[in-house]
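call fold(seq) -> tokens
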Amino acid sequence: MQVESTLTEETKRSQTAAPSVLTAETLIRGEKNSAEIKAGLFSGPLSGLVSSRFAAAFLAFFLLCAGLSKVNFDRMKPADFAWNTWTTWAIKDFLSRPKTPDVVFLGSSLMLVPLDGVDADYTNKTIDGAAHHRSLFFEDHFKKYSGQTVNSFNFALPGEMPSDAYLITRFLLEGRKAPKVLVYGVGPRDFMDNLLPSPSATDPFQYLSRFGDWSDHASLIVPDWQERFNFELTRLVYTYGQRSQLALDANRIVDSVLNKICPKPPSKLSDLELYALRRTNMPDYRPFEVAPNTCLFRPTTDATRPKFLDNIDEYKKRYKTLKMETFNGQMSFLNDILAIAKQRDIHVMLYAMPITEINRGLLSDKSWELYRSRLRQIAARSGASFIDVQEGGTFKFADFQDTVHLHSGGGAKLLDLMAKTIAADTVSQNKLGIAQTTEAPAAVRQVAARESKNGGAK
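ret:
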């Protein structure tokens, strides 16, 4: 460019002119040569001046950050989201509900897919996953088995790890928002995902971590030194720690001004069509964003359900190497979830979710037994009720839509089983205020007897 060329020429002229002046001065005064003079430019009094200016700037920046922190200038608002994902929709719905749910579901898509898919079939209506956060099927079946009306909330999220469920439990399920019973469905992937860089890499973490101080678990959440350095920097430098909120508010101001000066032209496309067009043209832009009516669960029957999806290659990668750091870290978070729940008088029903034998076959017998035995140990220590659904042999290959996810038909069997086992669980009965009767429904008695035989629910 012309500007760059001009600047270059001026720089060259200044560089060639400087030595001649310095050399003349050196010859006249008979002092140091030009190289020594150049070396001495930033020594002596000038060096002190530069150092003092740096120190002054650093001190001014420190005082600015301290002052902004003191007045809470543009401090992060935990529930103020730039756009919505599965996680933010669930958070906002949970916080906005005036009534505390009696039962809260936690888990990954292993729980989410059956919960939403079953309600689509049960109500014969299309379910918007972004807006539907309860299980009508479970509520009705629980009432059938216990005679008790309960309301539920579905906090299962795609990719949710125990580290994410820990943040939900610690920061959101407290005080008047604490449920009576926590239903947590887990699978091997939750503890053995070889593709997980760190607990801080999930979408749920990005938003749940805003609701409290998790520094006491930093060694588990940000084990990598670069992640840890970035975390410590957010705590040390106020403006850096609040950068997301500062950027969000600045963008809103700019957008407001631009919309007045240059309003958006009318479009023939609906918001949903524009969203779909953007996702097609820019798939990597806000990859986790979920707009209303874009994640739909439609009613199905045995005849209309999609064909089985073979996702075994994906899980070959996830299970390729058992990283004990990940396994032990996520088990530690599970232990903390149960400990917090016990402290808050929340009873936990822990379910080892069913998976296909194809998926199970990817795990060594040693890894499989380690996973199941650790679940039993953690549940026993905390007083949680543990149900190994896989061990019961209730679910067949035909109940699955892929190697790990139950379709709505299999999901109905799962939620019916959960309703029965919770209704038969004595601790859950006490928490939910279910009247103790000498004669429980036959279906409940059968489930309780079978699970007791299998070493399951207490």
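The first strand starts at residue 103 and ends at 107.
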